[in-house]
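WARN no homologs supplied; continuing
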Amino acid sequence: MDAPTLVTGGTGFLGRRLVERLLAEGRTVVVLARRSSPELVGRGVRFVTASLDDSEAVRSACRGMESVFHVAARVGVWGRYDEYYRANVLGTRALLDGCRAHGVATFVYTSTPSVVYNGRDLAGADESLPLTTRCPAAYPLTKAIAEREVLAGNCPELRTIALRPHLIWGVGDPHLVPRILARARAGKLRIVGTGANRVDMVHVENAVDAHLLAEKALREGRPAAGKAFFVTNGEPVVLWDWVNALLRSVGDKPIERKISLRAAVSVGAACELLWRGFRLKGEPPMTRFVAAELAKDHWFNIDAARRDLGYAARITMETGTRELVDWLKSQPLASGG
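OK structure emitted
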Protein backbone atom coordinates (compact mmCIF):
# COMPACT_ATOMS: atom_id res chain seq x y z
CA MET A 1 0.00 0.00 0.00
CA ASP A 2 1.34 3.41 -0.99
CA ALA A 3 2.12 5.65 1.95
CA PRO A 4 2.81 9.32 1.08
CA THR A 5 6.25 10.01 2.50
CA LEU A 6 8.17 13.21 3.17
CA VAL A 7 11.96 13.15 3.02
CA THR A 8 13.83 16.25 4.15
CA GLY A 9 17.23 16.62 2.52
CA GLY A 10 16.18 14.26 -0.26
CA THR A 11 18.79 15.61 -2.68
CA GLY A 12 21.77 14.90 -0.38
CA PHE A 13 23.93 11.80 -0.32
CA LEU A 14 21.89 9.73 2.14
CA GLY A 15 18.56 11.41 1.39
CA ARG A 16 18.81 10.82 -2.35
CA ARG A 17 19.55 7.12 -1.86
CA LEU A 18 16.58 6.88 0.49
CA VAL A 19 14.31 8.56 -2.07
CA GLU A 20 15.52 6.12 -4.73
CA ARG A 21 14.61 3.16 -2.54
CA LEU A 22 11.19 4.59 -1.68
CA LEU A 23 10.44 5.12 -5.37
CA ALA A 24 11.50 1.54 -6.07
CA GLU A 25 8.89 0.45 -3.54
CA GLY A 26 6.23 2.38 -5.47
CA ARG A 27 5.85 5.03 -2.79
CA THR A 28 4.63 8.58 -3.33
CA VAL A 29 7.54 10.80 -2.29
CA VAL A 30 7.68 14.47 -1.38
CA VAL A 31 11.09 16.06 -0.82
CA LEU A 32 11.76 19.17 1.22
CA ALA A 33 15.05 20.71 0.11
CA ARG A 34 16.55 24.06 -0.72
CA ARG A 35 16.76 23.13 -4.42
CA SER A 36 14.77 20.72 -6.54
CA SER A 37 16.15 17.95 -8.74
CA PRO A 38 14.81 17.91 -12.33
CA GLU A 39 15.63 14.21 -12.56
CA LEU A 40 13.56 13.38 -9.49
CA VAL A 41 10.75 15.68 -10.59
CA GLY A 42 10.68 13.73 -13.84
CA ARG A 43 10.18 10.56 -11.83
CA GLY A 44 7.15 11.95 -10.04
CA VAL A 45 8.73 13.35 -6.90
CA ARG A 46 7.05 16.52 -5.63
CA PHE A 47 9.31 19.17 -4.17
CA VAL A 48 8.77 21.65 -1.38
CA THR A 49 11.56 24.15 -1.96
CA ALA A 50 12.40 25.57 1.44
CA SER A 51 15.10 25.64 4.09
CA LEU A 52 14.69 24.14 7.55
CA ASP A 53 14.39 27.58 9.14
CA ASP A 54 11.23 28.32 7.13
CA SER A 55 8.93 27.03 9.87
CA GLU A 56 5.66 27.63 8.02
CA ALA A 57 6.81 25.77 4.91
CA VAL A 58 8.23 22.93 7.00
CA ARG A 59 5.00 22.47 8.94
CA SER A 60 2.87 22.63 5.78
CA ALA A 61 5.02 20.01 4.05
CA CYS A 62 3.72 17.43 6.54
CA ARG A 63 0.13 17.74 5.30
CA GLY A 64 -1.13 14.45 3.86
CA MET A 65 1.97 12.48 4.82
CA GLU A 66 1.94 9.07 6.46
CA SER A 67 5.67 9.03 7.25
CA VAL A 68 8.45 11.58 7.63
CA PHE A 69 12.16 10.87 7.26
CA HIS A 70 14.03 13.87 8.64
CA VAL A 71 17.46 13.57 7.03
CA ALA A 72 18.32 17.23 6.43
CA ALA A 73 20.49 19.21 8.83
CA ARG A 74 23.01 21.96 8.97
CA VAL A 75 26.27 20.03 9.19
CA GLY A 76 29.86 21.04 9.73
CA VAL A 77 32.51 21.57 12.36
CA TRP A 78 32.46 25.35 12.36
CA GLY A 79 29.94 28.16 12.30
CA ARG A 80 27.68 30.28 14.45
CA TYR A 81 25.65 28.42 17.04
CA ASP A 82 22.45 30.31 16.21
CA GLU A 83 22.59 29.17 12.58
CA TYR A 84 22.89 25.54 13.63
CA TYR A 85 20.16 26.03 16.22
CA ARG A 86 17.68 27.49 13.72
CA ALA A 87 18.16 24.64 11.27
CA ASN A 88 18.70 21.66 13.53
CA VAL A 89 16.54 22.48 16.54
CA LEU A 90 13.85 24.86 15.30
CA GLY A 91 13.59 23.01 11.98
CA THR A 92 13.07 19.68 13.74
CA ARG A 93 10.61 21.29 16.12
CA ALA A 94 8.60 22.66 13.19
CA LEU A 95 8.50 19.21 11.60
CA LEU A 96 7.26 17.64 14.81
CA ASP A 97 4.60 20.34 15.08
CA GLY A 98 3.58 19.69 11.48
CA CYS A 99 3.38 15.95 12.08
CA ARG A 100 1.10 16.45 15.09
CA ALA A 101 -1.09 18.96 13.28
CA HIS A 102 -1.53 16.79 10.19
CA GLY A 103 -1.73 13.33 11.73
CA VAL A 104 1.57 11.87 10.54
CA ALA A 105 2.02 8.39 12.00
CA THR A 106 5.80 7.80 11.95
CA PHE A 107 8.87 10.03 12.25
CA VAL A 108 12.39 8.74 11.56
CA TYR A 109 15.09 11.20 12.59
CA THR A 110 18.64 11.03 11.25
CA SER A 111 20.82 11.89 14.22
CA THR A 112 24.57 11.40 14.65
CA PRO A 113 26.86 9.55 17.07
CA SER A 114 28.46 12.90 17.94
CA VAL A 115 25.41 13.61 20.12
CA VAL A 116 27.21 11.57 22.79
CA TYR A 117 30.52 13.42 22.42
CA ASN A 118 32.35 13.57 25.74
CA GLY A 119 35.93 14.23 24.69
CA ARG A 120 36.99 10.67 25.49
CA ASP A 121 37.56 7.49 23.50
CA LEU A 122 34.31 5.76 22.58
CA ALA A 123 35.12 2.08 22.25
CA GLY A 124 32.10 -0.18 21.97
CA ALA A 125 29.85 2.61 23.24
CA ASP A 126 26.12 1.94 23.40
CA GLU A 127 22.95 3.98 23.70
CA SER A 128 23.25 4.29 27.48
CA LEU A 129 25.69 7.18 27.07
CA PRO A 130 24.14 10.57 27.95
CA LEU A 131 23.56 13.21 25.29
CA THR A 132 26.27 15.85 25.18
CA THR A 133 25.74 19.26 26.72
CA ARG A 134 29.40 20.32 26.47
CA CYS A 135 31.08 20.15 23.09
CA PRO A 136 33.37 22.60 21.24
CA ALA A 137 31.18 22.44 18.12
CA ALA A 138 27.62 23.58 17.46
CA TYR A 139 26.58 20.64 15.28
CA PRO A 140 26.67 17.92 17.98
CA LEU A 141 25.10 20.23 20.56
CA THR A 142 22.14 21.17 18.38
CA LYS A 143 21.64 17.66 17.06
CA ALA A 144 21.55 16.40 20.66
CA ILE A 145 18.85 18.94 21.56
CA ALA A 146 16.83 17.94 18.51
CA GLU A 147 17.21 14.21 19.20
CA ARG A 148 16.00 14.69 22.76
CA GLU A 149 12.88 16.49 21.50
CA VAL A 150 12.21 13.86 18.83
CA LEU A 151 12.31 11.01 21.34
CA ALA A 152 10.35 12.95 23.95
CA GLY A 153 7.68 13.53 21.32
CA ASN A 154 7.01 9.83 20.86
CA CYS A 155 3.38 8.93 21.56
CA PRO A 156 0.72 6.55 20.21
CA GLU A 157 -0.37 9.14 17.62
CA LEU A 158 3.17 9.94 16.42
CA ARG A 159 5.77 7.22 16.80
CA THR A 160 9.35 8.52 16.64
CA ILE A 161 12.82 7.04 16.44
CA ALA A 162 16.39 8.39 16.09
CA LEU A 163 19.18 6.76 14.09
CA ARG A 164 22.86 7.57 14.59
CA PRO A 165 24.75 6.54 11.43
CA HIS A 166 28.51 7.05 11.72
CA LEU A 167 30.66 8.32 8.83
CA ILE A 168 28.38 7.52 5.88
CA TRP A 169 30.37 6.61 2.78
CA GLY A 170 30.12 4.79 -0.54
CA VAL A 171 30.07 5.36 -4.28
CA GLY A 172 28.94 8.91 -5.01
CA ASP A 173 30.02 10.25 -1.63
CA PRO A 174 30.43 14.03 -2.10
CA HIS A 175 31.78 14.75 1.38
CA LEU A 176 33.92 12.35 3.42
CA VAL A 177 36.20 10.66 0.89
CA PRO A 178 36.59 13.65 -1.49
CA ARG A 179 37.61 15.80 1.45
CA ILE A 180 40.20 13.24 2.56
CA LEU A 181 41.63 13.05 -0.97
CA ALA A 182 41.71 16.82 -1.42
CA ARG A 183 43.46 17.49 1.88
CA ALA A 184 45.95 14.66 1.33
CA ARG A 185 46.81 15.89 -2.17
CA ALA A 186 47.23 19.44 -0.88
CA GLY A 187 49.65 18.20 1.77
CA LYS A 188 47.30 19.35 4.54
CA LEU A 189 46.47 16.00 6.12
CA ARG A 190 48.32 14.72 9.17
CA ILE A 191 47.86 11.66 11.34
CA VAL A 192 46.57 13.04 14.63
CA GLY A 193 47.65 11.12 17.71
CA THR A 194 49.19 7.65 17.54
CA GLY A 195 47.40 6.61 14.35
CA ALA A 196 46.04 3.48 16.06
CA ASN A 197 42.53 4.74 16.81
CA ARG A 198 39.63 2.62 15.56
CA VAL A 199 36.44 4.01 14.07
CA ASP A 200 33.16 2.67 12.77
CA MET A 201 31.75 3.65 9.40
CA VAL A 202 28.50 2.81 7.63
CA HIS A 203 27.98 2.23 3.93
CA VAL A 204 25.26 4.46 2.54
CA GLU A 205 23.10 1.53 1.43
CA ASN A 206 23.29 0.02 4.91
CA ALA A 207 22.24 3.38 6.33
CA VAL A 208 19.22 3.41 4.00
CA ASP A 209 18.36 -0.12 5.10
CA ALA A 210 18.37 1.07 8.72
CA HIS A 211 16.00 3.95 7.93
CA LEU A 212 13.49 1.70 6.18
CA LEU A 213 13.73 -0.89 8.96
CA ALA A 214 13.16 1.85 11.54
CA GLU A 215 10.00 2.98 9.79
CA LYS A 216 8.79 -0.62 9.56
CA ALA A 217 9.45 -1.17 13.26
CA LEU A 218 7.39 1.92 14.12
CA ARG A 219 4.52 0.82 11.89
CA GLU A 220 4.48 -2.63 13.41
CA GLY A 221 4.50 -1.29 16.97
CA ARG A 222 7.78 -3.02 17.85
CA PRO A 223 9.75 -1.89 20.94
CA ALA A 224 11.79 0.68 19.03
CA ALA A 225 9.60 3.78 19.34
CA GLY A 226 11.06 6.56 21.43
CA LYS A 227 14.58 5.11 21.21
CA ALA A 228 17.89 6.00 19.57
CA PHE A 229 20.09 3.51 17.73
CA PHE A 230 23.71 3.54 16.60
CA VAL A 231 24.02 2.36 13.00
CA THR A 232 27.37 1.22 11.59
CA ASN A 233 28.85 -1.54 9.48
CA GLY A 234 29.81 -3.29 12.72
CA GLU A 235 33.38 -3.61 11.44
CA PRO A 236 35.61 -1.06 13.19
CA VAL A 237 38.72 -0.15 11.20
CA VAL A 238 41.98 1.51 12.18
CA LEU A 239 41.16 4.92 10.73
CA TRP A 240 44.55 5.87 9.37
CA ASP A 241 45.23 2.39 7.97
CA TRP A 242 41.95 2.61 6.05
CA VAL A 243 42.73 6.12 4.81
CA ASN A 244 46.22 5.16 3.67
CA ALA A 245 45.00 2.00 1.93
CA LEU A 246 42.44 4.12 0.09
CA LEU A 247 45.09 6.64 -0.94
CA ARG A 248 47.41 3.91 -2.20
CA SER A 249 44.58 2.31 -4.16
CA VAL A 250 44.04 5.45 -6.22
CA GLY A 251 47.75 6.05 -6.72
CA ASP A 252 48.33 8.65 -4.02
CA LYS A 253 51.01 8.73 -1.35
CA PRO A 254 50.01 7.55 2.14
CA ILE A 255 49.98 9.97 5.05
CA GLU A 256 53.09 9.58 7.18
CA ARG A 257 53.53 12.87 9.01
CA LYS A 258 52.03 13.01 12.50
CA ILE A 259 50.94 15.59 15.03
CA SER A 260 50.22 14.78 18.66
CA LEU A 261 46.68 15.15 19.91
CA ARG A 262 47.78 17.77 22.42
CA ALA A 263 49.45 19.83 19.68
CA ALA A 264 46.45 19.43 17.37
CA VAL A 265 44.09 20.63 20.11
CA SER A 266 46.32 23.66 20.71
CA VAL A 267 46.40 24.43 16.99
CA GLY A 268 42.64 23.99 16.81
CA ALA A 269 42.04 26.35 19.73
CA ALA A 270 44.30 28.97 18.14
CA CYS A 271 42.53 28.64 14.78
CA GLU A 272 39.15 29.01 16.43
CA LEU A 273 40.25 32.23 18.13
CA LEU A 274 41.67 33.56 14.89
CA TRP A 275 38.63 32.70 12.78
CA ARG A 276 36.23 34.03 15.40
CA GLY A 277 38.20 37.17 16.18
CA PHE A 278 38.73 38.20 12.57
CA ARG A 279 35.49 36.68 11.26
CA LEU A 280 37.36 34.71 8.63
CA LYS A 281 35.34 32.85 6.03
CA GLY A 282 35.27 29.08 5.63
CA GLU A 283 36.27 26.43 8.14
CA PRO A 284 39.53 26.60 10.08
CA PRO A 285 42.09 23.96 9.04
CA MET A 286 41.83 22.48 12.54
CA THR A 287 39.44 22.75 15.49
CA ARG A 288 39.41 21.13 18.92
CA PHE A 289 36.47 18.94 17.90
CA VAL A 290 38.16 17.75 14.69
CA ALA A 291 41.38 16.98 16.57
CA ALA A 292 39.48 14.70 18.94
CA GLU A 293 37.54 13.03 16.12
CA LEU A 294 40.73 12.24 14.20
CA ALA A 295 42.68 10.87 17.16
CA LYS A 296 40.23 8.99 19.38
CA ASP A 297 38.36 5.71 19.13
CA HIS A 298 34.81 6.03 17.82
CA TRP A 299 33.19 2.65 17.42
CA PHE A 300 29.84 1.54 18.69
CA ASN A 301 27.80 -1.41 19.90
CA ILE A 302 24.97 -1.99 17.41
CA ASP A 303 23.28 -4.87 19.24
CA ALA A 304 20.19 -2.73 19.85
CA ALA A 305 19.72 -2.01 16.13
CA ARG A 306 20.18 -5.70 15.34
CA ARG A 307 17.68 -6.75 18.01
CA ASP A 308 14.96 -4.10 17.73
CA LEU A 309 15.18 -3.19 14.04
CA GLY A 310 16.41 -6.41 12.51
CA TYR A 311 19.37 -4.47 11.10
CA ALA A 312 22.30 -6.24 9.47
CA ALA A 313 24.97 -4.68 7.26
CA ARG A 314 24.48 -6.04 3.73
CA ILE A 315 27.54 -4.36 2.23
CA THR A 316 30.77 -5.13 4.05
CA MET A 317 33.70 -2.76 4.47
CA GLU A 318 35.73 -4.90 2.03
CA THR A 319 33.05 -4.96 -0.67
CA GLY A 320 32.14 -1.31 -0.25
CA THR A 321 35.76 -0.16 -0.30
CA ARG A 322 36.48 -2.15 -3.46
CA GLU A 323 33.45 -0.60 -5.19
CA LEU A 324 34.48 2.86 -3.97
CA VAL A 325 38.03 2.49 -5.29
CA ASP A 326 36.77 1.33 -8.69
CA TRP A 327 34.46 4.34 -8.82
CA LEU A 328 37.18 6.78 -7.76
CA LYS A 329 39.51 5.44 -10.46
CA SER A 330 36.80 6.11 -13.07
CA GLN A 331 36.50 9.76 -12.08
CA PRO A 332 38.43 12.61 -13.75
CA LEU A 333 41.64 13.43 -11.88
CA ALA A 334 41.19 10.21 -9.88
CA SER A 335 44.85 10.03 -9.00
CA GLY A 336 47.01 12.66 -7.48
CA GLY A 337 50.05 11.14 -9.17
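The chain has a mean pLDDT of 96.
OK
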